[in-house]
Amino acid sequence: MATMTTLPSGGSTLNIKSRIGMPEFFGTSEASNIYSSAEHLTGPVATPLLEHAGLNQDIKTPIEVLDLACGTGVVSAHLHQILKEHNTQELVKLTCADLSDSQIAHVRRRMQENGWPNTEAVVVDASQSSLPSDNYDVVIIGMALMLIPDSRGAVKECYRMLKPNGCFAVSLWHIEGWIYDVRDALSNLPGSPPWPQDSDELISAWAMGPWHNVRFVKATFQAAGFFCYIFRAFMRCVTDDYWTPEQRAQCMPLIEPALKDFFNKKYGLGQPFTVERTAIMASGRKPAK
Ligand SMILES: C[S@@+](CC[C@H](N)C(=O)[O-])C[C@H]1O[C@@H](n2cnc3c(N)ncnc32)[C@H](O)[C@@H]1O
Questions:
Q1: How far is Cα of residue 169 from the mean position of the Cα atoms in its chain?
Q2: What is the pTM of this model?
Q3: Which domain holds residue 51?
Q4: Cα–chain-centroid distance for residue 123?
Q5: End-to-end CA, the chain
Q6: In the chain, how many domains are there?
Q7: Would you say the CB of residue 152 lies under 6 angstroms from ligand 1?
Q8: Whose Cα sits closest to atom 14 in ligand 1?
Q9: Which of 40, 207, 229, 250 could be stapled to 146 by a disulfide with Cβ–Cβ 3.0 to 4.6 Å?
Q10: How far apart are CA 179 and CA 166, in angstroms?
Q11: The CATH number of the domain where 158 resides is what?
C-alpha cells in the first residue's frame, strides 16, 4: 500500500574516504561548519520527517530512537524541541550516529550546550553498524540515505536494528528547483564550464542510486522487508565532479558574484524570491513478529 502527498518547497578511523558519500567532504570540520550554518535550509524538512515518523505526537511510553547519518544533529534538535514542548524528553532515549568524527564532535557539543537528556552520539557506519539488533522503535535518516555509498546495505541494517513493528522514516530530495536559476546565473563564466542542466541531472551527479525516484525508494524498502508507505512529498559536489582543476581555480571565485548579480537582476536588488525544493518522505514498518 502506498500513499503520496507532495510537500512543496519547501570513523575517520573507519577509512572515511571510501565509505562516506561525497568523499572527504563530510569527514572535515568544514562540513560541520557548512551544515550547521545551513540549518535554515535543512531545518524545514526535519519537522515533516519527525511527523512522518510519528514523533510529533504525545509519547506515552518509553521509546528508543536512532537518528542515523545525523550530520550536525538538526533532526535531533527539532525532536528535542518537540519533546520539550510535550514534556516527554525523559521518555525518549536518542542515539545520534554518523560516520564522520567531525559531525559527531559537533553533535556532542550541541548536546552539552542544550542539555539534551538521554542522548548519546556515536561514530557508526550506517551500512555496517555495530548498533544492536531489534532495539529501536524508530530509525530516522534525514537527507542522507542517497549519500551513503552502500545505501541498500544501510536500509537492511535499519531493518535489523528496528524492533518488530518499528518505524523507519527517511527524507530524500526529489526536486532541486533552484538548479535552473543557478544554471542560468553561471552560464557566462569564462570558458562555459559544464553544469547540470536540470534537477534529475544534478541529483544523479551526487546520489548513490536513483533515490529521488519514488518507485526506487518503495522497491528498495520492500526488498529489505518493510511494509512500505511512501509520501512524496549544493553545489560543491558539482564543481568537484564536473570541473577540471583549472576550471575550479578560475571559476570558483566567480560563482558567488555571478549568483548575486543574476538574482539581483532577475528579482530586484535585495528582494526576496522563492525556489522549489520538493522532498520525499518515505517510511516503512518492520512486520510485527
Ligand atoms: C547531508 S548530511 C545530512 C545530515 C542530517 N541528517 C540532516 O538532516 O541534515 C549527510 C550525512 O551522512 C553522513 N554519512 C555519509 N555516509 C555515511 C555512512 N556510511 N554512515 C553514516 N553516516 C554517513 C555524512 O557524514 C553526513 O553527516
A1: 12
A2: 0.80
A3: 12-285
A4: 17
A5: 20
A6: 1
A7: no
A8: 69
A9: 207
A10: 36
A11: 3.40.50.150
